[in-house]
């Protein structure tokens, strides 16, 4: 053990930076927040190499007075908090004074800034122009230390340029994901702030190409159209600002924003955006409240699109609970939950007709009129699921089955050597298709269907980053997709396994799937299988059922679908005998 010493400033900054700057997108977030705090109406973000090579954020905000620029890079230097009391009612996005020093500790930073006051100063009473105070300030920092200063031409506002992020923190660099993934995180940050501030004109350029551009009209729907495209924007309903005061206390909670119809529900929660006093936050509470409002309107595993701004008195929310300021704590969680749930629900019910989903039919119900013996063993408890078969052993492979019929247009009833099998037709078909497309791909003989008319396909900025990195993989599975302008693609052919189903939904789900987990080939195959498979509720002919069961008998792991859910359940003859008290 060493002696206890106070860490050097450089070490302290690097440690603080670890919390504030997790990845390139965190840098973008901090710089965009600073620009917004400075009152900017135009914010340009440029990045290269996933933000590792370069991040540049330019704004037309208030700028920093020349005498204060160097101070801004010192730890805990902020112009946004004057007294401890201010901490109870923060109205700016920043307040910790940690972003600039943290970024400077882990990257090479340049700043050019001209403060509004100084730009206007040398006018009437200084006719010969005091050029020194009017000149923009330029600073360049390495390892957190200023290495050069001077001036550069620019009009009022600030440009911060960050290069070679984490070059001096190899451990962090190692944990970054692919350039495409990091770019998509950056696109997400800029998209979210574009939604939070529709009056600000945002542009994002990634590796020289424009990834996003919002008009800055002040209308949330215009920003949503720029971020999400027409398919989503055309299905968003506006919440007429709803103010709600909980019984106790006068604090009114305002909920405004846009709510997606169930028709555009998504497979991930990525389309739930929450802003608390226009700060982008992650909040399980808010997500639960919004999803609760969709209760009965969405199928399991689907999540709504919502963009909500929750406005409440600054004293009612603690924003100082997270180093990256991305989580908040509400003084009255119940009131906030209720306000959000009501606001969303009222829009959804007002915008009927939204069909109510039917309750799923229970698997085994006794036919009406059959008198049950007292306290029977519940049938479900007898229906046990065979263990998932390891891919290598044919031990659990299916025996030959004889089809007896279809139940609830969803399950195939079959007889095997040892009793009854109930097969979930969708899950079973998913498994069959999954194996089929994986095999076809590895043997490079994928069955393809050309579209009669090539279709255009538009993606969001984060989806676009994934799309670009997946081009080859998708081609390997039978998609023929060509770039067709910014964020639009022309789709000419799709895997034959998708049948007549919605290939667009399959692609979109794939582009939204979170990084990590299975590899891309498996994810693509899963998505094709899921969307190509017969649905529950679809009546099948005897031949179709027989074909499906034969195919299932042939695959290596017939007992689970690619997501790991069971494809079938089995009731053995001995279990039946017990059920009928024959033993
Ligand atoms: P914080 O935002 O928490 O105050 P930062 O380290 O992000 O801390 O910034 C330090 C200070 O530098 C800010 O308080 C602000 O005065 C100034 N500043 C940073 N970026 C900008 C900008 N884009 N425009 C104007 N002032 C800025
Ligand atoms: Mg800041």
The CATH architecture term of the largest domain is 2-Layer Sandwich
**CATH topology call of the largest domain:** Heat Shock Protein 90
Radius of gyration: 29 Å
Main CATH class of the largest domain? Alpha Beta
Walk me through this protein's architecture.
The protein has 583 residues and is of the alpha+beta class. It is built from 19 helices and 22 strands. An eight-stranded mixed β-sheet has the order 5-4-3-6-2-1-7-8. Strands 9-10-13-11-12 form a five-stranded mixed β-sheet, with helices on both faces. Helix 2 packs parallel to helix 8 (179-196) and helix 16 runs antiparallel to helix 17. It binds adenosine-5'-diphosphate and magnesium ion (MG).
Note the main attributes of this structure.
binds magnesium ion; alpha+beta; Ribosomal Protein S8, Chain: A, domain 1; Ribosomal Protein S5, domain 2; Heat Shock Protein 90; 33% helix; binds adenosine-5'-diphosphate; 583 residues
Short description:
By secondary structure, the protein is α+β, with helices and mostly antiparallel strands. Magnesium ion binds at residues 30, 33-34, 94, 99.
């Amino acid at each position: 053990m060493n002696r206890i010493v106070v860490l050097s400033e450089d070490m302290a900054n690097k440690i603080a930076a670890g919390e504030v700057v997790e990845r390139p997108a965190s840098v973008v977030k901090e710089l965009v927040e600073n620009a917004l705090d400075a009152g900017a109406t135009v914010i340009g973000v440029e990045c290269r190499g996933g933000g590792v090579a370069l991040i540049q954020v330019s704004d037309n905000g208030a700028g920093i007075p020349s005498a204060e620029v160097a101070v801004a890079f010192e730890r805990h230097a902020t112009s946004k908090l004057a007294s401890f009391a201010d901490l109870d009612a923060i109205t700016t996005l920043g307040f910790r004074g940690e972003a600039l020093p943290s970024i400077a500790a882990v990257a090479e930073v340049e700043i050019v800034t001209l403060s509004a006051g100084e730009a206007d100063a040398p006018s009437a009473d200084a006719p010969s122009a005091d050029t020194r105070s009017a000149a923009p300030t330029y600073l360049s920092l390495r390892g957190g230390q200023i290495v050069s200063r001077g001036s550069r031409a620019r009009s009022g506002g600030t440009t911060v340029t960050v290069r070679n992020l984490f070059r001096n923190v190899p451990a962090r660099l190692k944990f970054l994901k692919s350039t495409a993934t990091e770019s998509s995180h950056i696109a997400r940050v800029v998209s979210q702030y574009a939604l939070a501030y529709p009056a600000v004109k945002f542009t994002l350029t990634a590796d020289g190409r424009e990834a996003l551009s919002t008009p800055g009209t002040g209308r949330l729907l215009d920003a949503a159209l720029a971020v999400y495209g027409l398919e989503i924007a055309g299905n968003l309903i506006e919440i007429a600002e709803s103010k709600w005061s909980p019984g106790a206390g006068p604090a009114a909670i305002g909920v405004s924003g846009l709510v997606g119809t169930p028709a555009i529900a998504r497979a991930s929660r990525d389309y739930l955006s929450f802003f608390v006093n226009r700060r982008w936050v992650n909040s399980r509470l808010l997500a639960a409240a919004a999803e609760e409002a969709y209760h009965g309107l969405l199928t399991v595993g689907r999540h709504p699109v919502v963009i909500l701004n929750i406005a409440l008195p600054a004293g009612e929310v603690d924003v100082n609970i997270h180093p990256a300021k991305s989580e908040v704590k509400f003084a009255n969680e119940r009131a906030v939950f209720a306000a959000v749930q009501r606001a969303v629900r009222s829009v959804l019910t007002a915008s009927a007709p939204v069909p109510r989903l039917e309750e799923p039919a229970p698997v085994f119900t006794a036919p009406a009129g059959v008198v049950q013996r007292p306290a029977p063993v519940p049938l479900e408890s007898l229906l046990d699921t065979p263990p998932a078969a390891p891919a290598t052993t044919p031990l659990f492979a299916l025996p030959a089955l004889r089809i007896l019929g279809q139940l609830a247009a969803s399950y195939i009833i079959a007889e095997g050597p040892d009793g009854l099998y109930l097969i979930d037709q969708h899950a079973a078909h998913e498994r069959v298709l999954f194996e089929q497309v994986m095999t076809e791909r590895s043997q490079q003989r994928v069955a393809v269907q050309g579209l009669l008319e090539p279709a255009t396909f538009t993606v969001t900025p984060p989806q676009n980053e994934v799309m670009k990195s997946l081009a080859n993989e998708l081609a390997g599975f039978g998609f023929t997709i060509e770039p067709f302008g910014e964020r639009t693609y022309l789709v000419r052919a799709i895997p034959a396994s998708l049948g007549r189903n919605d290939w667009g939904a399959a692609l979109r789900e794939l582009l939204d799937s979170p990084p990590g987990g299975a590899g891309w080939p498996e994810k693509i195959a899963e998505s094709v299988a899921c969307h190509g498979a017969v649905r529950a509720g679809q009546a099948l002919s005897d031949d179709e059922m027989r074909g499906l069961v034969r195919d299932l008998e042939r695959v290596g792991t017939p007992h689970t679908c690619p997501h790991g859910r069971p494809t079938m359940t089995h009731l053995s003859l001995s279990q039946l005998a017990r059920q009928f008290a024959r033993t």
